[in-house]
Input
Amino acid sequence: MDTKTAIFGKNMEVSDRVNDYAMKKISKVGRFLPDIDDIRIDLAYLKSARNAADRYVAQITIRGKGYILRTEERAEDIFAAFDISLDKMVRQIERYKGKRNRGRGDGVPASGVAPETESGQLEATEEMPVIARRKKFQMVPMDELEAIEQMQLLGHEEFFIFYNAATSSVNVLYKRKDGTYGLIESEIA
Output
């Protein structure tokens, strides 16, 4: 497999047996989706889980050009958790490939479409808020239906930020309490 695959353990040591098992099983996703950039497998042991059947957690994240697919499953055994998560990933890949045939804008990257603005500096105040974490991600132009699908594929329950190809702006899609979706459209003042 030419893709970069990394396995990480949290609250557990990933043995050679688990590592070999995961690498052997994950190699089959390359047949379903050949343009994968990297795969991250997170395995964790949660001793404080309420149910003993939920102690082992396996999360698989696949990144490719223009998409991120993620699954997470829990089980009483690390191998079972990984197998269930992998099966779920294969279903997500099949769903993604089926929806992928639709067009996605004009193919121009978001950086080429977005107007450049001058970066303003914040005025120094006595107490500056602390930014605990920064996260960067690439935005691929998509329409609102693709954003809903991507939100569901990633398992984001509350919100999803995307570059709307139809309006050429950054939008925030969020799930409302009644099960419908809301859309926040940004404007530069």
User: Anything to note?
Assistant: Residues 120-125 have pLDDT under 50 and may be disordered.
